[in-house]
């Protein structure tokens, strides 16, 4: 009982390194953010500078929470891109210049003098939603985030899986349409090439250039490069036919991919997060229709498809879950932890 109470009283620092902002928060054992701080990422200045700003944001978050760094048990960091988490290393992040083989955990640990653990940002968000959000009480969960691209995470038997090279749920790059648009990864017809931010905007622009009647062009004064998914979603809410068609078409492609993942992972719950997911029913209804039409061997009825619950907090709270689990692994090596494939020390 005393050990359980001590665990509840522990607090953690969660750091979410994004392409635009760095957010740090002090999080208690119930997922409540006690104090937080933000810094601009300034991605063009490079990943090393972003890591320095992350440590500064962490210090500020602790101060705003009214706590000293000595009261923080561990730090978790979510980083976009390809990582070697056991080494605390960013291999490459497309959001940042000079991001190849940049140490993340070591400089933050040295700045804060706190055990520090690192994981891909979508994997971290998956931990957050599983522990405190839409995935609570489920042992089998898949999550995707819809934004510039499509990221994924998978909980199997209650554990986050990351794979031998940490590419276990690189779902945005499965081929959905063999002769589809080219993807930044070099493949053709990838899921995110069909459903990512640019694909949504491109689909709307194509319809406008064909002369289809829509208020979207007028809303941006015919500067078509100013169109955003949020604007398309707003137009759909206003009853704009072209906006509704765009989201329906995107929703169909999303539904195909989700049906595939339901067959592959057999999850109890499928969580959809990210900014584009905020398009609401205009996106979710075609997703659900498509999944019901295509998921048969593992029926659609076996899996709830739901929006994420934590919103912008998923990265910070998920990073705190990473910190708690990895710290527990160091104390009790047999304890459950997200980096289960390797027994080396993941702190740096």
Task: Tell me what you see in this structure.
This protein is of the alpha/beta class and 348 residues long. It folds into two domains: 147 residues, 2-Layer Sandwich (Nucleotidyltransferase, domain 5); 172 residues, 2-Layer Sandwich (Nucleotidyltransferase, domain 5), CATH 3.30.420. It is globular, with a radius of gyration of 21 Å.
Order of strands in the sheet with the most strands? 3-2-1-4-8
Tally of strands = 13
Beginning-to-end CA distance, first to last residue: 31 Å
Mean pLDDT: 92
Give the class-level CATH name of the largest domain: Alpha Beta
User: In the CATH hierarchy, what is the superfamily of the largest domain?
Assistant: ATPase, nucleotide binding domain
How would you classify the helix and strand content by structural class?
alpha/beta
Number of domains: 2
The helix/strand series, from N terminus to C terminus, equals HEEEHEEEEHEHEEEHHHHHEHEH
> What's the gyration radius in Å?
21 Å
How many H/I helices?
A: 11
Level-2 CATH architecture of the largest domain = 2-Layer Sandwich
Described by the principal axes of the CA atoms, the overall outline is globular
CATH topology of the largest domain: Nucleotidyltransferase, domain 5
Tell me the helix content.
25-40%
Question: In percent, how much strand structure appears in the residues?
Answer: 15-25%
Low-pLDDT stretches: 1-8, 340-346
Tell me about the biggest sheet? Answer: 5 strands, mixed
């Amino acid at each position: 009982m005393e050990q359980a109470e001590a665990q509840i009283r522990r607090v953690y620092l969660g750091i979410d390194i994004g392409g635009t902002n760095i957010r740090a928060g002090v999080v208690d054992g119930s997922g409540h953010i006690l104090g937080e701080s933000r810094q601009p990422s300034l991605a063009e200045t490079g990943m090393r500078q972003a890591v320095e700003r992350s440590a500064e944001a962490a210090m500020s978050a602790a101060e705003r929470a009214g706590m000293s760094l000595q009261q923080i048990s561990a730090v978790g960091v979510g980083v976009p891109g390809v990582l070697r988490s056991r080494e605390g290393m960013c291999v490459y992040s497309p959001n940042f210049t000079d991001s190849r083989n940049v140490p993340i955990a070591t400089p933050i640990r040295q700045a804060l003098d706190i055990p520090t653990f690192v994981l891909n940002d979508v994997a971290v968000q998956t931990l957050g939603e599983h522990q405190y959000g839409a995935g609570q009480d489920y042992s089998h969960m898949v999550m995707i985030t819809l934004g510039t691209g499509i990221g994924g995470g998978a909980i199997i038997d209650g554990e986050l899986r990351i794979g031998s090279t940490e590419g276990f749920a690189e779902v945005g790059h499965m081929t959905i349409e063999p002769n589809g648009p080219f993807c930044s990864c070099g493949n053709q017809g990838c899921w995110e090439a069909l459903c990512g931010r640019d694909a949504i905007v491109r689909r709307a622009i194509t319809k406008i250039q064909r002369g289809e009647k829509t208020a979207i062009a007028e809303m941006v004064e015919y500067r078509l490069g100013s169109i955003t998914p949020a604007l398309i979603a707003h137009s759909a809410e206003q009853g704009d036919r072209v906006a509704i068609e765009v989201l329906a078409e995107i929703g169909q492609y999303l539904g195909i991919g989700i049906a595939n993942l339901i067959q592959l992972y057999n999850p109890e719950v499928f969580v959809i997060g990210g900014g584009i997911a905020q398009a609401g029913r205009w996106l979710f209804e075609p997703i659900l229709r498509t999944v019901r039409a295509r998921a048969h061997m593992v029926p659609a009825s076996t899996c709830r498809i739901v929006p994420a619950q934590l919103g912008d907090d998923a990265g910070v709270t998920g990073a705190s879950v990473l910190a708690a689990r990895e710290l527990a692994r160091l104390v009790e090596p047999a304890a459950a932890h997200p980096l289960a494939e390797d027994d080396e020390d993941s702190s740096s």
